[in-house]
């Protein structure tokens, strides 16, 4: 068991709100921190939305009062020092902007108690890019969640060479306590395990379709039938939304052409995936 009791989440956007709610749902005391009270008012609505989603998705215990009880475990703050005053763990889920994260860790390092562990949920930055700004590299590491944490419950744990192994173990234990399957990563790797596998897989699918070798539905079919996997690359892309892979491809030299193929054939036609009712497949409007 971990010694973590009080958790502060920095940023209450898409992932921060899910991490905060899942932690509260698991019985921890959570402080949700964001930059203004207006944003925190929106966060409160997000948490109420998550309480309904947990019930609708049949998360164990949600309909029996746990989903509503979680809302009472969350307090709100737009004052960083107050938000972290008694935090055992701070999970940072602010925008993926290096300078913003570095600046935030500099402030956080000054106001947080010495006991506090810091964890970043960054998808593309390495914890090494941030560790020197924390003032406590031994108590800093990455704890990376997947979108829709209540269903896709992996938590990749990745430290730097400076992370104290006891802190690493503590965060692995905490991840289990909030219902995640912890995936320890033994040395730093951009993309962690998930994106190191997923990104080349999706790109291989796009290259087959864009090159005219086979249609997206048939590519998904062969993958599903021949391997027993539940979804092919285009079904997965529809769930992620086509904009994220487009943004990643546009920033890579070799991937630009595939990004252009996604844009011209799908994105420019409003086919962005499940969220817009159509991507490579069509979906019932919610
Ligand atoms: P988001 O834009 O939805 O939310 C960011 C939140 O941070 C906003 O509420 C914003 O007001 C707040 N914020 C901005 N500046 C801040 C500051 N200085 N201090 C505190 N809060 C601040 O972003 P997101 O999609 O939730 O992503 C957050 C992090 O999680 C990123 O590092 C991203 O790489 C990572 N991540 C995202 C996903 C995903 O699917 N969206 C998945 C895994 C990891």
Automatic annotation (TrEMBL):
Keywords: Fatty acid metabolism, Lipid metabolism, NAD, Oxidoreductase, Plasmid. Residues 191-283 form the 3-hydroxyacyl-CoA dehydrogenase C-terminal domain. Its EC number is 1.1.1.35. It is an enzyme of class 1 (oxidoreductase). GO terms for molecular function: (3S)-3-hydroxyacyl-CoA dehydrogenase (NAD+) activity; NAD+ binding. InterPro entries: 3-OHacyl-CoA_DH, 3-OHacyl-CoA_DH_NAD-bd, 3HC_DH_C, 6-PGluconate_DH-like_C_sf, 6PGD_dom2, Mito_3-hydroxyacyl-CoA_DH, NAD(P)-bd_dom_sf. NCBIfam families: PRK08293.1. This is 3-hydroxyacyl-CoA dehydrogenase. It comes from Herbiconiux sp. A18JL235.
